[in-house]
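In response to reviewer comment 3 from the previous cycle, which asked for concrete evidence that the modeling workflow produces usable outputs, we include below a single protein chain processed end to end. The sequence was submitted unchanged, and the resulting structure tokens are shown without manual editing.
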Amino acid sequence: MYKVGIDIGGSHIGAGIVDDFGNILKKQDKDINKYHAPEEIVEKLISLLDLICEELKISIQDIKNIGIGIPGTVKNNKIIYTPNLNLSGYDLEEEMKRHIDIEINICNDANCAAIAENLFGNLKGCNNGILLTLGTGIGAGIIINKKL
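The workflow returned the following structure tokens.
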């Protein structure tokens, strides 16, 4: 089974598929802007997933789960506020589930990056660390005692 990570930013969407060891098998991205309607963003997400699966010659059913990082405030898998996107209050999980039947987890993008770095990257083996994201906006994820 594969896992997909999606990073929704202020200017692009990046998607990558990994194996059980965190090895990146394929990644793709598409440009977006803050004026895209939420439905257009969902269309781009689905087309990225289709493209990655097609290139790896796997089925969408081979994906175990999808993690989506998004700038702003997320609570209980619900987008509360996004400063650089037209997604505040939008139920992205529900809309994605209209197209695919895969577990979806949505979290703040800087927190996602901090967790990933702690598991597989430059913070691997560290009990404590701070990860800063610099892009269209600025964010931070903090790991203390190996917990977000």
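The chain has one domain: 2-108. We consider this sufficient to address the reviewer's concern, and the full set will be provided in the supplementary archive.
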